Amino acid sequence: MADGTRAVAKRLLVPRSWRATNLGLFAVLGLAFATGLGAVATGSGRGAWVVVAHGVVGVAVVLLLPAKGRVVDRGLRRRRPNRGMSIALAVLALGSLAFGFASATGVLREVAGQTALWVHIALALLLVLPLAWHVVSRPVRPRRADLTRRTLLGAGVLAAVGGGLYAGIDGVVRLVDAAGAGRRFTGSYALDPASTPVTSWIDDPVPTIDPATWRLGVTGAEGRRLLSGAELAALGTATVRATLDCTSGWCVTADWTGVPLARLLGRVGPEHRSVRVRSVTGYDRWFPLSDLDHLLLATAFDGRPLAAGHGFPARLVAPGRRGFWWVKWVDEVELSRRPWWTQPPFPLT
Question: Do 172 and 235 meet the contact criterion of CB atoms below 8 Å apart?
């Protein structure tokens, strides 16, 4: 009976034609990209499911590789002018998979000064253009006939086998206490606060700020005012223990001391829809008003004043959100009429 079940599963997992293989792999890669974006965005435990889904989809891609390998082998036997692009596509896809699994298991934490997770993400982003070229240059249009009972059963088996293998790999990693067992649910590895890296989203350099001339602009329901560092501290501070989880694959849990944004902004008018926090570099993020009671404008980190690279003289602490929400070198905080969800989900610069 077991042999018969395995045989059925194998027939369902292996597409019968190059067309079915390409359509199936394209669908799975689309899911991998979507869940990957979700995994980068999530910072709270409520979003852990999307990280698990991304891992399961990654295993599903691996399961489809033998069938795709046969298609590629036939294609390489024919001389085509753009064969180099196809090879580049394969290299990027396999590289992204390899670094993703290396980071998840802890086999490889860092390469050339970058975390394995960040290399995985970078290769996946580089994969988008050649994949789009491949779809346009060699189109395989879906047909109603593609959605058969066998296709649906195959998708179900693929998901079940992928989920089982993902759980098995995760179980083995924890059983042998491999490095990957200590990751946060986002995939990030914990660091000691004293060794927190200096990072910025894409291209923000560390600015030079004179604390004597720095002023914080605060725009609330009562109007706008400018606060010096001493005036900000006079509002009273609070300490919050929160985890800074960077999308490049590391996280730090520490005590952050500063002024709660709710205290800083005061009354919220009915016309306000969000809170905008801006950096001296021009980088900014809008937050929903539901976040206001949890946001902190920190001036100290782990019992010490902020260093220049970590956001001096003030940075935002946004518990439950990933690092790109934690705006550094803040010089403006304001209540806004703009809905927070009208901004891009990820900053463009």
Answer: no
* Predicted local confidence at residue 82, as pLDDT: 66
Which pLDDT belongs to residue 277?
98
pLDDT of 127 > 90? The answer is: no
What DSSP designation does 42 have? B
Per-residue pLDDT reduced to its tens digit, 267-288: 999 999 999 999 999 999 999 9
Superfamily of domain 193-342: Oxidoreductase, molybdopterin-binding domain (3.90.420.10)
Please give the structure tokens belonging to residue 142.
């879906």
Domain layout of the chain by residue ranges: 2-187, 193-342
- DSSP 3-state of 237: coil
The answer, yes or no, to whether residue 84 has pLDDT greater than 80, is no
Q: Tell me the per-residue pLDDT of 23-72, one tens digit each, with 9 for 90 and over.
A: 778 888 889 999 999 999 988 888 899 999 999 999 998 988 887 777 66
**Interatomic CA distance for residues 235 and 237, integer angstroms:** 7
How far apart, in Å, are the Cα atoms of 328 and each of 129, 158, 230, 301, 313?
32, 43, 19, 13, 9
Supply the DSSP string of 102-143, one letter for each residue: HHHHTS--EETTEEHHHHHHHHHHHHHHHHHHHHHHS-----
Nearest to 218 by CA among 262, 249, 264, 172: 264
Answer yes or no: are the C-beta atoms of 254 and 238 closer than 8 Å: no
How far is 58 from 133, CA to CA, in rounded Å? Answer: 22
CA distances, 251 to each of 65, 137, 203, 243, 256 (Å): 33, 41, 20, 7, 14
315: tokens are 């940075």
**What is the model's pTM?**
0.84
- Is the pLDDT reported for residue 227 higher than 80? yes
